[in-house]
Every structure is written in C-alpha cells, then in structure tokens.
Amino acid sequence: MYPKHGYAKSVQTVQYLQKICKLVTNTYAVHLVTKILDNASKDQLSEFISSLYGHVAPLLRRMVGSLVTEHAYNVGNASQKQTLLMELYSPELPLFKDLVSMKEIRLVDVISQLQLQRSSVVRHMSSVLQPILEKGILDHSIIHRTLMEYLTVADQSSAADVIQQLSGPLLVWMIHARDGSRVGMLCIKHGSAKEEKCDKIARDRFGSMVLVSILSTVDDTKLLSKFVHPALEGILKELVLDQNGRHSLLQLLHPNCSRYLSPDDLTSLSLSIPSLNTKQKESSEVNEASDEEKRDNGEILVEANTGKSAGKNSDINEVAKKDPLTRRRELLISSGLAEKLIHVCSEMAANLLRSKFGKEVIYEERCKLCCPLTAVDKVVVPNL
C-alpha cells in the first residue's frame, strides 16, 4: 500500500535513494521497487536509474536483479535506455556519455564515433553476456538489444559461439519481443539444422516471424516436414483465422509479400550476421565498389529492400542454398500440407470469407493451389 498512499511525500523523505540497489536483489523488496518505478516522477526515475550506473551488468546476472533492471529499462526514456546499454557495451563508454548522442544509436556507430577498439568491445560484451547465457536469463528486452548489437560487431568465432548457445530451448524465451525475435531469426539463418526447433510459436506476434524465417531459410525440408508441419496441421483451422498464425501459411503461398508482411517484418527477415554471412563475403569480391559501399563493407546488419515482394528480396533467402521454388514445392506438395490446406479452406470457406485475416489465406490458396495463374506457381504446384 505504501506506493499508493502518501507516495510522493514518503519518497521525498528517503535520504539514501542512491543505495536502493541493495533492495533490487531482495526477492521481496523487488516488488516494492518496481511499484515505486511505476509511480515515480521524471526526476525520481532519473535519480533511480543513475543509481544503477556501474551495477547494470552484475544485476542482469541475477534473476531478481534482472527484473528490476528490465523494468527500469522499459519505463525509461530513449536517453536513459541508451545509457544503460552503454555500460554493457564497454567500461569506457560511461566516461564518454556526454560525447555520445543520447538518441538510439547503433554500437557500430559508437565505435566509429569514439574510435574504440572493436576487439576490446567484443571481449567486454562477451564477459557480460556469457554468465547471462549460462544462467538462461534471456526473457528481457535489454538483453535482446545487447545481443543484437553484439552480433553486429562480433568476429566469426564469437558470433558462432553465441548462435550455438542460443539455438534450441533458450530461443523460446526470446521470441516474444521484437529484438528477441530478430535474434531468433539470425539463429535460424546461421545455426545448423539440428539446432532449429519449433514449439507452438505460430500464433505469437513475434514468434510467428521466427517460424516464417524457418520456412524461408531451412534447406532440410524433411526435417521441417517431420517436426514443424505436424504442429501446423494440428492447428490449421485456427491458423487460417489468426492474425499472426496466418503468416506461416501465407509465406509458403506468397513469399515475402508486402501485402501481408509489414516493412519492419521484411527488414527482420533480411537481417544477417556479417561475420557469418559467407555468401555476402564471396559476392563482395566480385561486386563493384558501389555495391560494396551499399553493403557498408559488411560492418552493419544487411537489410533488404522492404518494399519489394517475393522474387525481389533476394537478401531474405541469401543464407539458404536450396532453390526457393524447390523448397516451396517440397514444403507444400511433397509434405501433403497443400492438400490439407485446400480441405480446410473448402470446409471453412464461409467463415474465411467473412474473416478479416481468413480471406487473405483463402484468396492465396485459390490463386496458388487450386488454379495457379503464373508460370512460377505452376512450377511449384503441379496438378493436385
């Protein structure tokens, strides 16, 4: 009741607010601290976040402390979020916080602006992230953001180690958030086939995009047919009507279509890790200088043109080796998914036509499966 009744007057009488870090590691006091943050004024919030400086990394290694740090990160403004992140990037950055733009800025830009040693930054971030990965504390957005930035600057060996650690059960804890789902997509693109798993993520806002990435990049279609397709077929009637669930089906019917995927979704699908993107390295040797400049010499995440539809977003599938048409044919036809989808759409036609999202699925199902109009669709879908 303390935070609600007499909160403002009580907080003003606290003489040692900067020692509040002692409370954030207490299992019971953590609830009081989060409630204080929810009701704090701008000045009080700023003072509290200032008290976290120098303690962010140690707090994130503890289950209770990470809850408060994440809460402070979420309620803070862009400047405060960036300051908390800077401490995780390098021990030197808090010393230059007045020199670094307080707007949201990428780590590669900070390194360039302050002329920091990339290897030193990678070593520090590795020392921060490794204990967190070992303990499995991965359901916080501040950690997701740190991982995204780490992968943009890490060398091939360091990036591969993190991808290997994240791929598997740990991934499920991350895909509920925007940056977490993007890290998940990078794990799908650059991890081995044995590491990729699907666990009821089809209807999650960001998890569905991880599943879309799996269907777009994994070359082992037999593995997908064995593990992913049974999960989809079991909830096919729900997926065709679900706002997020329909994404995996539409990706197979009409890949990378800007009508169904937002620019942000297409950008997420096009992300890749420069140090692990071997195809990009090989192509950069033969591309013209202008093309190399557009890729920014591989120092930042590669983004495809989000305004184009299937067939033009080549960067989205650049990690995959199998021909996209062959993959679609195997995932739709050889697996039997197309036949089951046709049956479901025929059975639920009336409901789908009245549904805001279902009508998109039945439209693509009719155009791509029942009466393919384009030469590409006729190649993918033979006579059923």
Automatic annotation (TrEMBL):
This is Pumilio homolog 24-like. It comes from the Eukaryota. GO terms for cellular component: nucleolus. PROSITE patterns: PUM (PS50302). InterPro entries: ARM-like, ARM-type_fold, PUM3, Pumilio_RNA-bd_rpt. One of its GO terms (biological process) is regulation of translation. The gene is LOC113737880. GO terms for molecular function: mRNA binding. Keywords: Repeat, RNA-binding, Translation regulation. Pumilio repeats lie at residues 15-50.
